[in-house]
Amino acid sequence: MNIVIMGCGRVGARLAGLLDKDGHKVTVLDWDAYSFRRLPPEFGGQALLGNGLDEDALKRAGIEEADIFVALTQGDNRNIMSTQIAKHIFNVPRVVCRIYDPLRRDLYETLGLEAISPTTIFADIFKKKLESTG
Amino acid sequence: MYIMVIGGGQLGYYLARGLLDEGHEVLLIEKDAKTCEKISQDMGGICLRGDGCETVTLEKSGTARADMFIAVTGDDEDNLIACQVAKHKFKVPHTIARVRNPKNESLFKKLGINVTVSSTRIILEHIEREVPSHRMAHLLTIQDKGLEIVEIRVPEGSRAVGKKVNELPLPEGSILSLIIRAGKKPLVPNSSTAIEAQDQIIAVASPESEEALRTALVG
Description:
The complex is a heterodimer of chains A (134) and B (219).
Chain A: E1 2-6, H1 10-21, E2 25-30, E3 46-49, H2 55-60, E4 68-71, H3 76-89, E5 94-98, H4 105-110, E6 114-116, H5 118-133
Parallel strand pairs in A: 1-2, 1-4, 2-3, 4-5, 5-6
Chain B: E1 2-6, H1 10-21, E2 25-30, H2 33-43, E3 47-49, H3 55-60, E4 68-71, H4 76-89, E5 94-99, H5 104-110, E6 115-118, H6 119-130, E7 136-142, E8 147-153, E9 175-180, E10 200-205, H7 210-218
């Protein structure tokens, strides 16, 4: 599958590496070239410098042929905006974004976006872990 | 009217002040504590510290009864999301977003924001108008109709000079509305009005026909 990942942080780079290993065609977009150092050495996909909120940059990243778009930048609003661009402008079949702020759940549900909030997930994991060993 | 303003920078500050002077109920939401304090000192307790994109903040500030919601922070994505929350979650009838990157203007519209104001484009247009060699300036965009009102200055030596309006290769949908000549009263041209050099023409055109209109009068 064609997958475009916006944001090459720790999670973005790791996800890109895993999907590339599984044989998908992966393109990672980030506005800071330095962040591409996080990609594994054997990464066979494309690393592209550009702003994921810019339609032209997204086109260069091949969003028009993408099956999946994932937004993993540090900014919740940036992630929400770019997934909306992917979904509504480029009609990407599946879009997923990370949203740190769990309070925005209402919003992304209203907007019909698929989102994962690591904040709630980690808090739950930690709580379970503490309870089980305590 | 109850008007909410998101972002307490220069734009938000003077906007809030103007709206207060007009007698509106205004609430400004600003993230930065210091900026917020300064605004409250200057204008009374109209500033709430918080994130204008957060449902919780908007809930406690009574967004559901707001008549108008204006997002003027320096970040396009924040303005977009704040307006979307106001519109979809709190059903605010009128939302306005400031856009810094002119590219985002059409995008915001596609994503459902009623009105966008591109600060960058407005500043550019004002500067363009002051450049003497600039032959065409945008005066106004009629957003929902896809029309622009432009000003064109006819230079000496233009092919249009001496021709009547009905002899000009004007693009379809464009209308010459007003001709301003030095030392004369502004006139509304008809099909037999002849164009003179140095005419200042106010015209209506679609963004697509703009270039053809320019060529017809300037080239």
